[in-house]
Specification:
Layout: H1 2-11, E1 15-22, H2 28-35, E2 41-44, H3 46-53, H4 67-85, E3 91-98, H5 104-110, E4 116-121, H6 124-139, H7 150-155, H8 157-162, H9 176-198, E5 204-209, H10 210-215, H11 217-228, H12 236-239, H13 242-249, E6 250-251, H14 259-266, H15 286-303, H16 314-317, H17 329-332, H18 334-347, H19 352-364, H20 379-382, H21 384-402
Parallel strand pairs: 1-3, 1-4, 2-3, 2-6, 4-5
Length: 403
C-alpha cells in the first residue's frame, strides 16, 4: 500500500525523488548533503533505519531487506512528502542509501520510483582504508579519534581485517573484506540494472567520483546538475556552508552524530585534496591488498562509464586541484591520475605525444602517501600492483572489442 501511494504521488507530479546510492565510505553522505540544497527534505538511509528497528539482518529466514521492511520505509517517505505538501503543492525528496542493503527483487521495485539517480564511488585504496579506519575506531573505542590516526590503523590492520564484524555489531556478519566485496559486487550489479531499466524510461542517472568532486568541486557539481537535469541559478551555496543545510534538511531516524556520518554532516565545505593522503597497496596486509586489487576493475567500470559526471580531460588532469597552486591529481592520488590518463590513452581522446609523457611522469613521480611506505620509491614501485590491474583491465577490454 505505501509503495503504491508513493508511486501515485510521483506519477501525479506531487512528489519527485532524487536518489543517492553508493558503497559505504564512498562519499554518498556528503553527496546527500550537497544535493539536499535542491530538495525540500533529505532522508538518510530510511531502509537501513527501519531494518535496524525491526531487528536487523539477523532476523530468522528474512532477506536483508524484505517486502515488509520496504513497505514501512516507503511509508516513512510518504509521511515526509505529506508534511511538505501541507505547505506547498509539490515536494522534492532526496533519499540516500547504501549498496549492500537491497536484495534484487526489492531493488527492481524501488528503482521504478525515483526520477534521478546519483551513484557515488571512491577509488578502492582509500574507500577500503576509510572502512578499515572506522572499524578500527569502533574496535578500540576511539570515539572518532582513531579515524585520523593512520599509523595506528595500518599497524592494527591485520587484526581488523580478520575480525568477525559480529563482534562489533550483532547486525553484521563476515569480515570487513568479505563485506566490502559484497558492497562493490552489489553496486555494479545495481548500476547495470538501473541502466537497462532507464533505457525505456525518461529518468536521469549520474556517477560521482569523490576524488574528482574534491579535485574540482564547481566543475563536478555543475556536471551533476546537468546530468540530472536540475534547475539552479547559483551553485555556490551548494558547496559552502554544508553543515547548515545538513542540519535543516536531513531527516535521520538514527543518531545523526554517529561516527559513520558525523564528519560529512558537520562539514562546512568539501574537503580539498591534499598531499600525502593517498595510500600504497603495499602498506596493507596481503589479504587487504588482494581485496583492493580485486575490486579495482569494478571501480574502473564505474569510473569510465558514460554516466560519470566529470571525467577530467587531459588538460584538466594537468591543472592544479582546488585550493592549491602547486598540487595536481597525480601529486595527491597517483593511482586515480594513472587510471584517468589510461582512459584517454585507450579511448584516443587526445594525441599520444600529450598522453604518454603524462603517464611517464605519473609513473616516475615520488608522491607522498599517508603510509610512507618506502617513501624513497617512485610511484611505479609503490603502486605497481594497482597500476598492473589498470593495464590488465584495458588489455581485456581491447581484446573483447576486437573479438
Amino acid at each position: 500500500m505505501n509503495e503504491q501511494i508513493l508511486k501515485q504521488l510521483v506519477a501525479s507530479g506531487k512528489a519527485s525523488i532524487i536518489y543517492v546510492h553508493g558503497t559505504c565510505r564512498s562519499g554518498s553522505t556528503i553527496a546527500q548533503v550537497i544535493l539536499s540544497r535542491f530538495a525540500d527534505r533529505a532522508i538518510h538511509q530510511p531502509f537501513a533505519a527501519v531494518l535496524k528497528a525491526q531487528g536487523g539482518n539477523k532476523r530468522p529466514n528474512k532477506l536483508p531487506l524484505n517486502a515488509a521492511i520496504y513497505e514501512e520505509a516507503c511509508g516513512m517517505i510518504v509521511n515526509q512528502i505529506i508534511e511538505i505538501l501541507k505547505q506547498k503543492n509539490q515536494a522534492t525528496i532526496l533519499v540516500k542509501e547504501v549498496s549492500p542493503l537491497f536484495e534484487l527483487p526489492i531493488w527492481e521495485r524501488w528503482i521504478q520510483i525515483p526520477e534521478k539517480f546519483l551513484f557515488t564511488i571512491r577509488e578502492p585504496h582509500l574507500q577500503y582504508f576509510s572502512g578499515l579506519s572506522l572499524m578500527t575506531d569502533m574496535y578500540f573505542h576511539g570515539d572518532g579519534a582513531l579515524l585520523r590516526n593512520q599509523e595506528f590503523v595500518l599497524k592494527n590492520a591485520l587484526i581488523i581485517e580478520s575480525l568477525n564484524l559480529q563482534n562489533l555489531s550483532p547486525d553484521w556478519d563476515g569480515t570487513i573484506i568479505s563485506d566490502n566485496d559484497k558492497e562493490w559486487e552489489a553496486l555494479i550489479s545495481q548500476w547495470k540494472i538501473v541502466r537497462s531499466f532507464l533505457d525505456v524510461n525518461l529518468k536521469k542517472i549520474a556517477i560521482m567520483d569523490l576524488n574528482i568532486m574534491r579535485m574540482n568541486p564547481y566543475y563536478a557539481l555543475a556536471k551533476i546538475i546537468e546530468k540530472l537535469d536540475i534547475e539552479v541559478d547559483d551553485i555556490e551555496p551548494c558547496i559552502n556552508n554544508l553543515n547548515i543545510q545538513s542540519q535543516s534538511k536531513i531527516f535521520d531516524l538514527r543518531d545523526p552524530n554517529r561516527e559513520a556520518v558525523r564528519k560529512a554532516r558537520n562539514s562546512k565545505a568539501i574537503d580539498p585534496l591534499v598531499r600525502g593522503e593517498d595510500i600504497s597497496p603495499y602498506a596493507f596486509p596481503p589479504q587487504s591488498r588482494e581485496h583492493i586489487w580485486r575490486v579495482i576493475p569494478i571501480y574502473l567500470d564505474l569510473l569510465y562509464a558514460p554516466e560519470q559526471v566529470a571525467m577530467p580531460s587531459l588538460e584538466q588532469l594537468d591543472d592544479f586541484v582546488a585550493q592549491s597552486e602547486t598540487l595536481k591529481l597525480e601529486d595527491t592520488h597517483p593511482f586515480e591520475a594513472y587510471a584517468i590518463a589510461n582512459f584517454h590513452l585507450h579511448q584516443k581522446t587526445a594525441q599520444l605525444e600529450k598522453i604518454v609523457p603524462l603517464i611517464e611522469r605519473i609513473l616516475k613521480g615520488n608522491t607522498n602517501t599517508s603510509s610512507n611506505w618506502e617513501k624513497e620509491k617512485i610511484n611505479s614501485e609503490r603502486f605497481k600492483g594497482s597500476f598492473e590491474i589498470v593495464e590488465q583491465y584495458w588489455n581485456q577490454r581491447n581484446q573483447d572489442k576486437n573479438c
